[in-house]
Give the backbone structure.
Amino acid sequence: MTAATARVTWRGMNLWRLEWLRLKRTPRALTMAAVFVFFGLLEPILARYQSQLFRHVGNGVRISFPPATPAAGVSGYFGELAGTGLIVVVVIAAGAFTFDAHHGLAIFLRTRVTGFWQLIAPRFTVNAAAAALAYVLGALAAWYETSLLIGAPAAGGMLAAMLCGAVYLGYAVAVTAFAATIVRSTLATVGIALAVLFALPIAGVYHPIADWLPSALTDAPAALLSGTHQLSHYLPAFAVTVAVSAAALTAAVLRLRTREI
Amino acid sequence: MTTSGLTRDYGGAGLFDVGLVVPRGSIYGLVGPNGAGKTTLLSLLSATRRPDRGTISMHIGHNRIAVCPDVPEFDGWLTAAEVTDLARSLVAPAAGRQAVATALAAAGLAGSAGRRVGGFSRGMLQRLGLACALVGEPELLILDEPTSALDPAGRAEMLSLVAAMRGRRTVIFSSHILADVQRIADQVGILRDGRLLYQGATKDLIDTYLEPSWLVRIAGDLHPVAAALAGEPWATRAEPVGADTIRVDATSIEAGERGIPAVLAGCGARQVSCEPVAADLESAFLALTGASS
């Protein structure tokens, strides 16, 4: 060993640490957290001052809003679960799952692992956990600011809403993992994953299955905060979301096994 | 390692009925023009593609095979040491960190171990690919164009490194630089249009497909000597190629080696030198592929 090598230190590497470093050393983790916290801080302000905002941009037209409620203050944030926040999570997850888009990288990984769960499990777990953590950070920011500006929302409703969002984001990451095995490029993977995630709520228009779809979890926070439904109402959606996520990950592994590079 | 009837058909192109025989501990050079099927064959051997038919027999475990693509790619935000350590964790988890340092040093990257690979040149990436392969102490090393991005000094280092593996591990490498193959490969396989045209010892290929030739320098009038040589039944050609040099082509090495001195002595010619025309793999390759066209 040369002196130059002896000076270099590094922590033991494995596929789990690889995913952690992917989030830490690139702007991925920071971007995700920043987006969710930004909306967590912005939405309560919009809810609290919407009358004043419309007065400024309304060209003299007066629009009256009911007084802002704590539930309304945080509901805007939870709406990001099906908006900008979801897109950011899918884009970041797609970057991790599309290793086959790079021939040399695909050979490095594929010729060394003993099974494709080795590649999928850390990518899914770390990205889903990071997305859930960023989402919860944003929710806490929204909770804090709503408490300052409007009043404290119900703690039970907030915790239940966070749980729904975290599970839904895990489902979004699993769908992205599967999309990465249908196509190779990151852009195409993002397109397919978002198409699935945005199209599924359309099936919810057919009322009898609406409560069973994963997309029910994106509507759940508003209902939970307003007291319209209890968490138990969403148990079918939870069960289906977890089952579909597991199925998507299993299908991803099977498809990677048959794909050639 | 052997293959039998290995076929992968991409609609007329691909690989057809390839029966490879790679002796344990040998360095096997795979050569052929672009599109001959070299990369397809290496992909089948490394199991990143599947054959339509045929078999591959390797009596070694999955983690004892290492593959280096011609353009290695890694996550650019990892350091060279981390990339190599990741490879170690996957194929040789029991090996210590010393194995990482040793592999990096062997690949000539000891001084860049702490650098992020995003800033590496293609040549450095090829070296890193080799370090990742070596860290697992593989029994079979598959290298696709291992010197294609290296400068002359780097090429020489890489070839010396591969040559030093002879007997300790089996190496299969493809290259379009025939001089590299001739320099280190003891076995060679020539692919063309997806078919294996030749397989065997590199020296045998050169001997088999080259017409034996010599350049004979003599002092004095060379034309009577050239005429005498041309009249011999074993000589296929004998012509002056300079003021004092005759090129002599013979039907065999033995015939030339016996016949030329005898004719020179018979003519009383004053011989300055007699050198065989350098036989190289490129000439043999051209002779072989040309004969088959």
Observations:
- The two ends of chain A are 36 Å apart (CA to CA).
- DSSP finds 13 helices and no strands in chain A.
- Residues 1-6 of chain A have pLDDT under 50 and may be disordered.
